[in-house]
Amino acid sequence: MDDTDAPGGPELLPGHEVALGGPRGMTVRRTLPDRGRRMVGAWCFLDAYGPQPIAPGAPGMRIGPHPHIGLQTVSWLLRGEILHRDSVGSLRQVEPGQLNLMTAGRGIAHSEETPAAHSGVLHGVQLWVALPDGARHTDPAFAHHPDLPVLAADGLSTTVIMGELDGAASPAATHSPLVGAELRLTAGGAGTLPLRPGFEYALLVVDGPGARVDGHELTAGPLLYLGAGRTALRVAADGPATLVLIGGEPFDERIVMWWNFVGRDHDEIVAARADWAAGARFGAVHGYAGPPLPAPAMPATRLAPRGRVRDLPPWS
């Protein structure tokens, strides 16, 4: 099917399991990019993992130094700890309720690992935001935000991770109109959030058996794409539940996503891969006890820029 910019929705994106670091690595469920729907606003990547027990002496998460271009990484935890190092000299542990935001710009490298002293469990999400053309060659940067705005209502607590929601704005830097938030529902809790009709939205249950989203039953695992044109969202749950909400203005630029890179054409990806192999552009990550990750081989055919969505049947 040809790429199209038709909005559509709602749709259920089941995702698939991916082993980070190879077959013996940590398993995550990846719901973005999906074969048909590659983005929600500028959000172009979503991995959910855990809760995964980490036995004493076990390595937990260990992702060696690797490069990025053209995106922001958003690290958000429900339980556990991750130690971040990068090539601009950052060393920061992220814990539940805190945001680690890395802006790759023209090029950065980083590693992620479970620290030596940890709580014995890991549960969270990793997201990427595609940078628009005017910001994707910016200087690389890192920011840690331990204090984020929280909206509290009967049975629903909403932490604004990125962007703005219901008048509460995150301090995190954004480069396109978007929002990311964590929604926590108590048992029997419910609430309504105002939405921007010009944004498209999606929801993921990351803890608890499920929730009701505008009357639809949503279980843990798949991503529910809600489409655009909505002015409000009603969520409810019989038992305690945590969801992640992402949204933003539809991203109209065509992009190439390959390995850890977000570019605009095949040659840009080839150049970034060559620079990583040559030890150029991305800098060095100091302090990680292990080698950097090698880039995979380029595909035999040229990478084609793609739009954010293909035609898909509606979810019901």
TrEMBL record:
Domain Pirin N-terminal as annotated: residue spans: 27-129
Record bears the keyword Cell division: no
Keywords: Iron, Metal-binding
Record-linked InterPro entries: Pirin, Pirin_C_dom, Pirin_N_dom, RmlC-like_jellyroll, RmlC_Cupin_sf
Residue ranges annotated for the Pirin C-terminal domain, each copy included: 182-281
Family: Belongs to the pirin family.
Pfam family for this entry, one: Pirin_C
Coiled-coil regions, chain positions: none
Required cofactor names: Fe cation
Organism listed in the record: Spirilliplanes yamanashiensis
Identification of the protein by name: Pirin
Binding site for Fe cation: 66, 68, 110, 112
Record field: transmembrane: none
PANTHER family associated with the record: PIRIN, PIRIN-RELATED
Gene3D superfamilies: Jelly Rolls (2.60.120.10)
